[in-house]
């Protein structure tokens, strides 16, 4: 931890949520503006864990949402994105990113999974796809396969989702701002990709 850090941003997100992909651009700006003073921590929150049905890839809901909201936001941010042809469960992808966390490669895996799903239209619920992504990141393929098939990190992923639920997280992205030093300033949080409130609070607490 950077000794200058005064605030932590806790982010609950899902790899199948386009708004979670977009919020990364805002978080990058925060890193640049408050370099060394803010720590960003990521936690998994699968929106539709089993047995909740996944969305129909070409159903009316997704087609309408992407046309009215997602594609315009992608254009606004200058981020390439397309409606994926599959809507996988994200538990296995989260387990891969948790494994990468143990190797100090979480953020690289985190962004690679978003890119694979929203730009390359890869099925990030498929083991072979995850092994290829991991291999491209330099992760040990045999070790990654072992952990994913054994479910080594599944309990951790589930526990982190429960922590989100305990904070009343029901949608993502969900962002919370907390002090590194307990009691230094009041904690706050919000669901959604609008980070204006976060910027205002950071300006007040980290300067």
Give the secondary structure arrangement, pairings included.
Layout: E1 7-13, H1 18-33, E2 38-44, H2 60-77, H3 91-101, H4 106-118, H5 127-136, H6 141-150, H7 154-166, E3 174-179, E4 188-191, H8 196-205
Parallel strand pairs: 1-2
Antiparallel strand pairs: 1-3, 3-4
Helix pairs in contact: 1-2, 3-4, 3-7, 5-6
In short:
The protein is built from eight helices and four strands, in the order E-H-E-H-H-H-H-H-H-E-E-H.
- Give the overall form: globular
Structural class label:
alpha+beta
User: How many E strands?
Assistant: 4
Nearest-angstrom radius of gyration? 17 Å
Specify the CATH class.
Alpha Beta
Instruction: Give the strand line-up of the largest sheet.
Output: 2-1-3-4
Instruction: Report the β-strand fraction as a percent range.
Output: 5-15%
How many distinct helices? Answer: 8
The low-confidence runs, each spanning 5 or more residues with pLDDT under 50, are none
Q: What is the assembly state of the chains in this entry? A: single chain
Supply the number of structural domains: 1
Q: Give the N-terminus to C-terminus distance in angstroms.
A: 18 Å
Major sheet: 4 strands, mixed
Report the CATH superfamily.
Glutaredoxin
Which CATH architecture? 3-Layer(aba) Sandwich
Q: Can you describe what's shown?
A:
With 207 residues, the protein is of the alpha+beta class. It has a single domain, classed as Glutaredoxin, CATH 3.40.30.10. Helices cover 49% and strands 12% of the residues. The chain contains 8 helices and 4 strands. The protein has a 4-stranded mixed β-sheet, sandwiched between helices. It is globular, with a radius of gyration of 17 Å. The two termini are 18 Å apart. The mean pLDDT is 97.
């Amino acid at each position: 931890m950077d000794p200058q850090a005064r605030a932590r941003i806790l982010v609950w997100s899902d790899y199948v949520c386009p708004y979670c992909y977009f919020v990364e651009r805002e978080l990058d700006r925060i890193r640049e503006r408050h370099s060394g003073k803010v720590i960003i921590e990521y936690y998994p929150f699968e929106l539709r864990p089993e047995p909740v049905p996944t969305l129909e890839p070409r159903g009316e809901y997704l087609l309408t949402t992407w046309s009215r909201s997602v594609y315009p936001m992608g254009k606004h941010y200058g981020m390439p994105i397309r409606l994926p042809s599959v809507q996988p469960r994200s538990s296995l992808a989260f387990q891969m990113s948790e494994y990468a966390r143990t190797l100090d490669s979480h953020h690289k895996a985190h962004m690679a999974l978003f890119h694979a799903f929203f730009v390359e239209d890869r099925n990030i619920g498929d083991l072979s796809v995850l092994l290829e992504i991991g291999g491209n990141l330099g992760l040990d393929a045999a070790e990654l396969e072992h952990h994913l098939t054994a479910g080594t990190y599944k309990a951790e992923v589930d526990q982190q989702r429960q922590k989100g639920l305990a904070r009343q997280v029901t949608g993502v992205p969900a962002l919370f701002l907390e002090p590194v030093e307990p009691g230094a300033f009041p904690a706050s949080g919000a669901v959604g990709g609008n980070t204006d409130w976060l910027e205002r609070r950071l300006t007040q607490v980290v300067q």
